[in-house]
Design goal:
mainly alpha, 3 helices
Length: 95
């Protein structure tokens, strides 16, 4: 992820959602959804390779486990922010 995108996501986390336009919120929702899907796909792939290695007796690969754990750990806060964006969008659409 480019540095400016990650910095923008951090800045957005500190700003209030009320300050963003509906178009910007929809764009952020789409970005967060894509990031969550990518992280979960990578984590599931890592876990499946880890299980495959355990079955064929290659042993436990700690790097795959750490990567999968990190992907799941990062996707949780992203999901929570996406949920807040969804709530803000529904609140604005109901008004």
């Amino acid at each position: 992820m480019p540095l400016n995108v990650s910095l923008n996501l951090l800045i957005m986390a500190k700003e209030k959602l009320e300050n963003f336009t509906i178009e910007k919120l929809r764009k952020r929702k789409k970005i967060f959804s894509i990031l969550i899907v990518i992280l979960i796909v990578v984590a599931v792939f890592d876990v499946s390779v880890l299980i495959y290695n355990l079955i064929i007796k290659n042993g436990f690969n700690i790097s795959l486990f750490v990567n999968a754990t990190a992907c799941f750990s990062v996707s949780i806060p992203l999901y929570l922010v996406k949920k807040e964006i969804d709530e803000e969008l529904t609140k604005r659409e109901n008004n």
